[in-house]
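Hello again, I could really use a second opinion on something today. I've dropped the whole record in just underneath, so have a look.
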Amino acid sequence: MDYTPSLFDPEINTSREKYRRYGKMQSSSSTPPIHEGFDAKFRENNFFFNGSDTTTNIQNPDNAALVLDDLKQEIENQEFDGFEASAFRPPDSLRRISGFEPISALKTIKQEDDLFTDSGESIFSLFASLLDSAIQGLMPFADLILHFKNTCRKISESFRFGDTGKHRIVEDKLMRQKAQLLLDEAASWSLLWHIFGKGNEGIPDNLILNPSTSHQEVCQFFVSDMTAQLCVRIVLWLEELASEALDLEKKIKGAHVGSYLPSSGIWHHTQRYLKKKKNDPSIVKHLDFDAPTRESAQEFSDDKKQDESLLEDIWILLRAGRKDEACELCRSAGQPWRTAILCPFGGLDQFPSVEALQKNENTKSLQAFELESGIGHQWLLWKWSSFCASEKIAELDGGKYEMAIFASQCSNLKRILPVCTDWESACWALAKSWLDVQVDLVLAQFQQGSSCDVKSFEDSVNGLIQQGIGNSQYSSESWPHHVLEQQPHDISSLIQKLHSSDIVHEAVSRASKDQHRQIEMNLMNVDIANLLDLLWSWVSPSEDIQNVLRPHGDPQMICFSAHLVIVLRYLLADEMDDNLKEKSLTIGDLIIYMYAMVLFSKQHEELVGIYASQLASHRCIDLFVQMMELRLNDSVQVKYKIFLSAMVLPFSSEVDEKACFEEIIERVLSRSREITYTDLDERFSNVAEQHRIQSLQKAKAVQWLCFTPPTTLTNFEMVNAKLLLKALMHCNILFREFALISMWRIPKFPVGAHMLLSFLAEPLKQPTDTLLSLEEHNIYENMQELEDWREYYTYDATYRNWLKIELENADVAPGELSVEEKDRAIDVARDTLNSSLKLLLRKKFPWLTTSEICPYKSTDDVFIELQATAMLCQPSGECLCPDATLCTALSSALYSSICEEDVFKRHLTVNVAISPEDKFCVGLSMRCTAVDGDGLGLHESNDGGLLATILASAFKGELSRFQPGVTLEISRLDAWYSNNDCLEYPATYVVRGLCRKCCLPEMILRCMQISVSLCENGDSTDCRSQLIELVADSELGFFSLFSQQQMQEFIRFERECTLFRMQFQEDSSMNEA
């Protein structure tokens, strides 16, 4: 906080230094005391965001030009020889931060890493750790507020005093601004604790006296009156801030307010002057404290200055709630009579609190006083006397601090506020005066013989105004009517006075516009709804900012706002009405979301989960989906941090309102399958390459499922098994899609499929006992399908390796090709044939067969639906841009690929339209009724049924009534069982059968292609007879998988092989002859 100007700044030497703070303690080291302990951890680090960020670190209520003017002025006034950074003090205009305009000219400051402690935790981690402990119930939220406050203060002190190195002027100014920001935040946390975190306690029975005393009556009233309690808490908060500032001064300088030599308040200069027997009517003739008033004269000027310095220190101690220290200062300075003014009734603590009652320890002295004079009579008389003294001092133009001291004892605001030039002091003066007047009103009733029902303070003031009573009519019996008109009527009135430059100092009204002061005023007024609106207006992105992942406003304010929202939710959970609770959820979620984005943008992804867990389910899911997508191409370490952050959430849905990890990963995986192109031009020239690149992005999303969860989870093994099962299921989905888009006979590998295999390698090494124990009917099928795809892509890799070698050899003239190169090509060809034949000749578990049984009964009205997103690809490999005519033609061609009888019998419907997500793709939807063997019962043929048959023709480019050679290149493919127009269960047998229809014929054709190459090179390896037997075997059913054109190609390859073999035999015979 920005305390009373210079006297709360331990580094500022004033003109009255020679009159006070004697005997300063000089440290033997150049390192100040603040450098010890916690604060040393924060040296040489930067708490705020990197200056290269577009988000401004340090904000100014004015603008950058004014800041530069301030800097220029201070630079001109500095002597650079022997310049010490600790002597530099920023102007008052920079002590509070409220604006959001960037100060680009100040980015010359050296940039450092985020602030870290010795243990490696950043400031973000520190706050997150504290909050997480409170959320888990390890500490009360009231204690959490105090931890936040103390942390902010310690880091602020470290910024300001912890670094003994010299700074450049600009750096020093920014460091001070950072320190002030944190000090402001600490003050706001302190107020929050005083209002909401500090418990209410009644008066213990052992402290109740009979007959009662004025202090006991006042305390009983304040315990029962909520407004009075709030006023007490505000006063205690402001006094605590001032007291902490004094403690800091002592910690830094080794001396503090009130450090005086004994008898330093005696008028030694006046005494020596009188001994010289000089006759000056303006100088007093006696040394008693009443002499100036009695003789209408003054003490010697040096003594007057020293008295004023003493009174200023007394005022500072009173302002900090240290009345006992102020009294001791008066005694040690040789002016004990001032103690009687400050502490009547023998020094009893008259503050209206239970703590004060306990401190007085059932003393009988006050009770004895009031048994004789009546309850409150002495109190009100003392108040009236203080009021008369303050007015008399003002009339004689006496010292402002002496006037303020007397005025503070009687709530005479018009005499107090002139010395309150900072916001905290003015607020304290208003709250303390209002508090004292409420005490006076309670006690005044005992004097007036009123009933025990105390009238409200506002009614008292309004009644006085209506009576038109003037100060001239007042006496001690009418107290406190003398000062009622000066007081605020309620908290709103107090806040209004702080904004009024006619009542308070201009600096106070200007400071009321600062951010943390606005926060504090809303807390004082307990206006949480307006506080939430205010915080959101500061941190919300502006309308022209499209990227919500770039936080708007001061990052530190966003951090404070998010923590404040969470704390208020827990503290006031049972006290909020429906409207406030709704606002705390809606606006609060937006603020927390913004802070999560701050953490994300500053590479603190591991902390996001703590805050995301406080969001509504849909916001939490959106947050993690965005983070996972944006970090998809980052390092494994970064992605693992996000994974750990997401594991803070429940793995499975337990409460409808809360998000879970499963929902997040489902959304991520689903969105990863949506086709997105970065280069619009390439899609027209090379569809296969576009799909190959896209498959890589799809595969990367599976890595989120392949991380190992924290072993600290109570159900670690179960979570780990579920992650692996989900990875298996999704990988199989992608393997099917990747196989269908990698039919092209090109050397480039299907990188997506091989990345999936690499991701699964490590998780599959772990024991699978827990995985197999899961109550999932398709675990074994998914594991078996994974092995099928592993074997398939192993074969595919060897084939593409052979094809690459063949294409490289084809570029070399036959005579220049070495024997080693020919032999290498032959060896790879043999390996490819062996791997493919091993897969094709499997008898016990044929490749990609399924034992899937429909979960529905034959009597149910069940449909099979197939949905796909695809591009139309011309024979040249270029994209065919769809339009309405083309979609209609494709739909008609799909209908025509089967007989009309099956169309009507199976109630087939086909819908083809331009994809709403991408105008260069088509969305394909097909639906038919389920029958035995195709949707109902066991699907023994393993060919995918009717829908797979239709779609296979489109994939192979053999639609009879469509453009010749145009193929359907899918980017997403799903099949479902549906009942009552609701997709209910995946029909994986359809897609598996489609893969068999497309992949197995292509595999056999590739083997024939290799055989042709071997025959051409004269190699004796011959697998044609095995391949022919496979195709002709009716039990295996391979023949039904071939289309007409594929069978023609098979026969052509066989013919070429026969011709090459005959040619080779003929050449061999001629050579032998």
Remarks:
- Strands lie at 862-873, 879-880, 909-914, 922-929, 931-932, 935-936, 967-979, 982-986.
- The first strand starts at residue 862 and ends at 873.
- Residues 1-69, 78-121, 450-458, 464-473 have pLDDT under 50 and may be disordered.
